[in-house]
Amino acid sequence: xGQGWLLLSAAIIVLAAILRQGSxxxxxxxxxxxxxxxxxxxxxxxRRVEYTRRLSTTHAxxxxxxxxxxxxxxxxxxxxxxxxxxxxxxxSWYCPRQ
Length: 98
Prior knowledge:
Blueprint: H1 3-19, H2 22-44, E1 49-55, E2 68-74
Antiparallel strand pairs: 1-2
């Protein structure tokens, strides 16, 4: 969330105070609370999240089957709704043909 939301909520609060509109003031305050919650979430969402990857063997020959294990652990109270990993096997993972 950008700072545009913060400015929008501040403008709504000021406008509500000028027009003496309680419901508009409530909307501005709720936007301000949502902005603060989003900032806290963005700061702490990935803390204490552990991502590990492991191969079943340290050496393999062409044609061998190797298990690639990925593990993700959330070690905090804050809920994490979903993660996306975009790891791909690079050329350093492959054994060149000789």
